[in-house]
Amino acid sequence: MLARLAKPAGAIALAIALIALVLLALGASPAGVFIALWQGAFGNWIAFTDSLVKATPLVFTGLAISVAFSAALWNIGADGQLVIGAIAAGAVGPFLGGWPRPLALTIVLIAGAIGGAWWSAICGWLRARRDTNEVISTIMLNFVAVQILSWTVHGPLMEASHAYPQSMRIAPSAEMYMFMPPTRLNLGMILALVLAIAMYLLLFRGEVGFQLRAMGINRRAANFFRIPIASLTIWTMALSGALAGIGGAVQVSAINHRLYEKISPGWGFEAIAVALVARLNPLGIVVAAIFFGALDNGSQAMQRAEGVSPVLVQVIQAVVILILLAFDTSAWGNIREVFSRAPVAATSIEGADA
Amino acid sequence: MLEAFLISTIAMATPILLAALGELLVEESGIINVGIEGAMLAGAFFALSGVYFTGSIAVGLTCGIAAATAINAMLGVLLINLAVNQVVAGTALNIFAAGITGVFYRKFFGITGKAFIVSPLHALAIGPLARIPFFGPMLFDQSPLVYLAFLLVPVFAWLIRRTRYGLRVRAAGERPEAADALGLGVYALRWQALIVSGVLSGLAGAFLTLAYANTFVENISAGRGFVALAVVILGQRNSWGLAAASLLFGAAMALQFGLQALGTAVPYQLFLALPYALTLIVLAFFGGQARDPSALGIPYIRN
Description:
heterodimer, A: mainly alpha, 0% strand, B: globular
């Protein structure tokens, strides 16, 4: 267990060194920035719980990435899937007044799941039936999703006063159960944990998970062993999108209570960093999401204290991904040994925990 | 109205075409470069910064090219020498470019943005040709980068399909083991393709800030690099096809300005989404007849 953590830990240390260089180039004090980040993320009880709040959408999107990448389906569209899930939740939410709360909440979450699932399944279907590269299709649908969100908050779902580009508030019965106010801890976080465990069991304890990972390691061989590649592709993408969509619904139900433009600061992309740090392991994703959620949360304090833009967090995410990739490649062996084994066609990441 | 639309179409097609030609060469060598969006974005920001701080278009273009090439060089180390997953590395570099340009943009110009405006890369009228009615302004009174992009179409067609060098690049993308066994140097060929693509992505980015917007906004590339990826497939991996596909998306982007100007009752978001939706629909239902290079996207480790 410790050995498996050594590499990510080393990668994070190297990432910190590189970030420090970027900060020096910006004329900021690396120590000051890291202290401000830490204070902002864990400095007090509210800061700590807010880090967990910011980690929650990353757990959902991280699981979405994990499921898809495990099957070697490169879903870069978790952001759009989360947005469509949020729109679905924000669209049904205002009309659930008077419904029993457990039922209303369930409807909101299912709406989010269905929203994200079909949006993602489009790309799964195109990959399975039209051989359309899912990288391009998922990216294109991100852009379309953002415009749909913009249209809904300016158009059909716009609040009654028409003063702001935001949707009607969801009914109180559709709001998530909150714990320990004034913190924003909520039932959505428990749901994230439950789904993480469920995805772990699905991927590593079930027949479907085995087939899914087999397809990820070698699509052609999986086909040879009569794994139904086409339908598995569509359903894996749908599941991936559903997870991201639930993330969007939880965000609307627990935190925002309505829709507005830019509801996601890029969680679907940050999730790629989360999933890679966790080596696609659903349980590891919870830990990695807390790390990145804390980073997001601390970045606000960093800006106040050191005047460095929170956009820096994106640089940090990218550096972490790049370093992990560089650390985790199977090519090192070949670089060290001149006489090495046969080339490894599949990448190392999806086979990491196989 | 039609004339303005067509002039705009050619201008909007230019950055996509520049990026797509580079991507074509890269893909023929066996690499899929998802990071092209980030290279274009870095090119856009640093080209404008170069002009802003020195007042020289030449310095700006050099900065833009250098920044985009630097992104591609990082990708080269990861994809070629370390043989990592190409989609994930490319996505990471896109995030990196968005972050770096965002951080430096806010550092230089504050969050509200002081006037980050430069005098543009002026259109270059080609003598009397520019005075031809209707076609003159469209074809012969455009930015020099427009001429460059369209002149590169036959050059790339010839380079990839008609030269020994093009044959070597395609061998690297089809059968890297065999190409290496023949001593063609797959790593070197792929590196060269990525550098060429870096230069062209830098010019594509520079076009956005220096010839089109005259300023920078975060994520100004707005998915054009991804559209370029789609254009390579739609254009059937043929330079002339790439030019045609680029013009199609140029038209979709030009249309949104025209229709917004008309002030129609249709929500403007529909037009903003149009280029991306069109990309997906055309790709899914009209693309894909040209066969991908056999080794495209597969990390290659030399034995």
